[in-house]
Design brief:
Elements lengths: L1 E7 L3 H19 L3 E6 L5 E6 L3 H11 L8 E8 L6
Antiparallel strand pairs: 1-3, 1-4, 2-3
Length: 86
């Protein structure tokens, strides 16, 4: 699994791009590639938990979604995660 950590700024482009991004995450969740996703309570960023094999799979998801290149959105980190409870 992979944890993607995002940070946000108040750029209006981010808010305009968010509905399409959430639709994409919803489809990936239905397919089993996204386990959980959502903003931090203070809306300063978000976390996405991906269940894909290898870093290449995580990078492919990030590259396919224009949200991750939108002004106001920064991919802070992509880290492998090994949960012992699922």
């Amino acid at each position: 699994m992979w944890i993607v950590e995002l940070t946000f700024t108040p750029a209006p482009e981010r808010l305009a791009a968010r509905p399409a991004h959430r639709d994409r995450l919803t489809a990936l969740h239905a397919a089993g590639a996204v386990r959980a996703a959502g903003p931090l309570a203070d809306d300063s960023g978000a976390l996405i938990i991906l269940d894909v094999p290898g870093r290449a799979g995580a990078d492919e998801i990030l590259a396919a979604d224009p949200y991750f290149r939108t002004p106001g959105v920064e991919v802070r980190s992509v880290r492998e995660w090994s949960p012992f409870l699922r």
